[in-house]
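Researcher: Quick test of sequence recovery. Tokens follow.
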């Protein structure tokens, strides 16, 4: 096995690395939905809500299965609640960016790292539980 493949396999064994890898795909999908909704005329809160709902559907399966190795469908309520909180934080951040003159597209992109960090913390400690990924 070459060194690149060894590094990828080692990184996949670390929950945060798996979260980042899977999260990049989920985040790209969610931002594409957000941008498409803005392009179609939705306001940024509505675009963010549409993006959030689409992202929740994809993320619950991918984060549970690949990141936290927990397929318990009973955790979906906690997962949704964690993303409601993340949505409110995200809207607040985008609103702050708008107040300083950043447009909705860039504001949404700038808020992504905070949304990713918030999501990981909520999912690891509140939704799926730390002990399930060790």
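Model:
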């Amino acid at each position: 096995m070459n060194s690149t493949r060894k590094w990828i396999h080692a990184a996949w064994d670390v929950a945060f690395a798996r979260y980042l890898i899977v999260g990049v795909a989920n985040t790209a999908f969610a931002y594409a939905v957000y941008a498409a909704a803005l392009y179609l005329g939705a306001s940024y809160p509505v675009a963010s809500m549409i993006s959030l709902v689409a992202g929740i559907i994809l993320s619950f399966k991918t984060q549970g299965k690949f990141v936290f190795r927990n397929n318990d469908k009973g955790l979906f309520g906690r997962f949704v609640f964690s993303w409601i909180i993340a949505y409110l934080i995200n809207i607040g951040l985008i609103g702050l960016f708008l107040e300083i003159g950043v447009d909705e597209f860039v504001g949404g992109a700038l808020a992504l790292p905070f949304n990713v960090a918030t999501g990981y913390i909520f999912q690891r400690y509140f939704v799926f539980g730390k002990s399930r990924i060790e």
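Residues 61 and 71 are 7 Å apart (CA to CA).
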